Amino acid sequence: MKIAFHGAARAVTGSKHLVTLNNGVQLLLDCGLFQGMGDITEKLNESFGFNPAKVNYMILSHAHIDHCGLLPRLVAEGFRGPVFCTPATKDLARILLLDSAKIQMQDAEYANKKIKRVEDQEMPLYTDKDVHQTLSQFKTIPYNQNFDISPDISVYFTDAGHIVGSAAVHLKINEEGKETRLTFSGDVGRYGDLLLKSPQTFPQADYIVMESTYGDSLHVDLDPIENMLLQVITHTCLEKGGKVIIPAFSVGRTQELLYALNGLELKNQLPAIPYYVDSPLSLEATEVLRSHPEVYNNGVKEVLKVDRDIFGFKGLRFIEDVAESKALNSDQQPCVIISSSGMAEGGRVRHHIRNNISDKKNTILMVGYASPGSLAGRLIGGQKRVWLFGQEYDVIAEIQSIKSMSAHGDFEDLLQFLSVQDASKVKKVFLVHGEYDVQQNFALRVSAAGFSNVAIPEYHEEFEL
């Protein structure tokens, strides 16, 4: 048996890990879109490094685009097998993939306006038709239920606590009378998350494919998230009369922000200003989370006893229409605008940043992971000038960050996730989904925890299991 790493290898995007059995059967773990990789992003997304038509089964850990965003491309290039995931992941993947297809098609249409020859025109990575075909191949499996996807392969999902529906994947593979147990962590959430249950314990594994996004960081903030939000809003909106612009992922981060703001209202502490969620996708994602209360932790369940709508409060308005979104830029009153994308690499939030970044009254507030090369990452890193829509802007607005709002566990969370294993029985740990320098530091921590064989795969590297 072999495993090859075709994405999220010494990087935090494009998750794809291909398991090939001795009899030729192939099983793909995740099929993510590469994002924020600069000039090579397009090239990375156009070539898998393997033949999609030869893949027999696909298992999806969760619905973030860097884990599911190339699935329609996989299908368009010949994959005809089932896609296994949790029910909530299927619900989220539907809205995220349709939105991604819309963006692909719009980008291609815009680019082709300047290209006259048909043979030179750009094609989208996939279309909405490809997405609908992909969704027809989804098959759902609940948490904590053994499921045989073939006579030789069984899968078991445990809650990873990352986003609604996220799962750690546990495989039992039988070859010639020998059983191999392989765990893929997916993305591991935080213990004590604001909304979700903590990551579950999981069965003993022989091999572990482990994410490492924050493998050398601790999410230490002195104040609870509600207090930090209140401080930023009070300082920016009430004292300076400015706007707070928050780039936030439509799934997970936006809902955490709404829950925290709702908590302030329940305490009669929420400033009486307008709050906008400028992302149609966020509205749909919030409805998905509302429809899956089984993922809530006990603290949220207690709040639900006194407040039926944990994501709604006075002054909140969801913006769907493009004209309404544009109107926010000319509205000078103090307000909070939450808009995607989380790394500020696309979406409506880039327009809000452009219109507010050069005014000292305003604050750009980052609330999650941002790759160093992304706009959000460069702002956090202290860059003083940025290019937006072909024009350079001075960074005069305040730049702030709440690191504790990451959906990814820090190194203590990741080590706690691994701690349920008898390290002496784990033959190898593969570190994926992390920047290389971070992975090197985390590898030392994993080794110190008793795991004697830790590898950091390179892009397209293959290992014998």
Total helices: the number is 14
Strand order in space, largest sheet:
6-5-4-3-2-1-22
Number of strands: 22
Instruction: Return the CATH class of the largest domain.
Output: Alpha Beta
Rg estimate, integer Å:
22 Å
Q: Given the helix and strand composition, which structural class is it?
A: alpha/beta
Report the CATH superfamily of the largest domain: Ribonuclease Z/Hydroxyacylglutathione hydrolase-like
Low-confidence stretches: none
Query: What name is given to the CATH topology of the largest domain?
Result: Metallo-beta-lactamase, Chain A
Q: What about the largest sheet?
A: 7 strands, mixed
Helix percentage: 25-40%
Q: Give the end-to-end Cα distance, rounded to a whole number of Å.
A: 5 Å
CATH-scheme architecture of the largest domain: 4-Layer Sandwich
General form: globular
- Strand content is 15-25%
Domain Metallo-beta-lactamase: 13-235
Organism: Pedobacter africanus
InterPro entries: Beta_Casp, MBL, Metallo-B-lactamas, RibonucZ/Hydroxyglut_hydro, RMMBL
Domain Beta-Casp: 254-379
Would you summarize the structure shown here?
This protein has helices spanning 41-46, 65-68, 71-76, 87-112, 128-135, 225-239, 253-266, 280-290, 298-304, 322-330, 349-356, 375-380, 411-418, 436-448, and strands spanning 2-7, 16-20, 26-29, 57-59, 83-85, 138-140, 147-150, 153-159, 167-175, 178-184, 207-211, 243-247, 275-278, 316-319, 335-339, 363-366, 385-388, 391-394, 398-401, 428-432, 454-455, 462-464.
